[in-house]
Amino acid sequence: MAQEGHSGENGCLLGDQEAVLCSCGQDKLTRWERLKKSKAGGAWACVYTKPDKTSFEMRLLDVSNKLGLLSPWIRNQTSDQHMLNLVKLRNEGRLRHISLGLVALTFCADYDPEADLYEAQCSHLSVPWSSLPQRVLDVGFAGRWWILDSKMKEYDVNDEEFKNLPLHMQTTQPPSVREVEAIEKLHKDSWLAVQMENDQETNIS
């Protein structure tokens, strides 16, 4: 009877272990399926939001309009030179656009494809793909053109404007907490009504 009791307990333990192993295996499968679905969803989102040639030209037009509204003394030289280079290549017909699945690339070519030059039409003289990394001008990913956006940071700040200032005036630091509180107090006090001296004298009398 004791042996039968022990065998029954062992059978229950084995059954519990099998159930635990099955649940762990199912959990691993569900995690793997979720991971595959999340990767597939992320790849689909990247492909769906990948910018195209038209979006690059629209972004370039927007950038040139923003810089055109600024005085040459205010424009950031890095932003201005990058924009002028892209516009020059576009006017010459040398901008190319290629889609690589998840990302898009904009690069420069040597000639306009519609040019009637022998160098432009001969396939044996075309630019090799090995030189593509040196010709890339921008990378399109997740609905943005990253290099153009990075070049446009602080496009309205000309660093050359401040090169003749003293060193302690060329850089600025954020104000401290006390300075912020003092500025806020001055701002609040500026909204208070101004009391005239005559009113104060009548009140005293």
Descriptive report:
The protein is elongated and about 90 Å long. Residues 1-11 have low confidence and may be disordered. A hairpin with a 4-residue loop joins β1 (95-99) and β2. The chain has 205 residues and is α+β, with helices and mostly antiparallel strands. A 4-stranded antiparallel beta sheet has the order 1-2-3-4. The chain is built from 9 helices and 4 strands; from the N terminus they run αααββααββαααα. α2 packs across α3. It has helices at 2-48, 53-68, 77-91, 118-121, 132-135, 146-151, 167-170, 177-189, 197-204; strands at residues 95-99, 104-108, 136-141, 144-145.
Task: Offer a few descriptive terms.
alpha+beta, 57% helix, disordered N terminus
Secondary-structure element string: HHHEEHHEEHHHH
Shape, per Cα inertia axes: elongated
**C-alpha-based Rg, rounded:** 34 Å
Tell me roughly what share of residues is in helical segments: 55-70%
Number of DSSP-assigned strands: 4
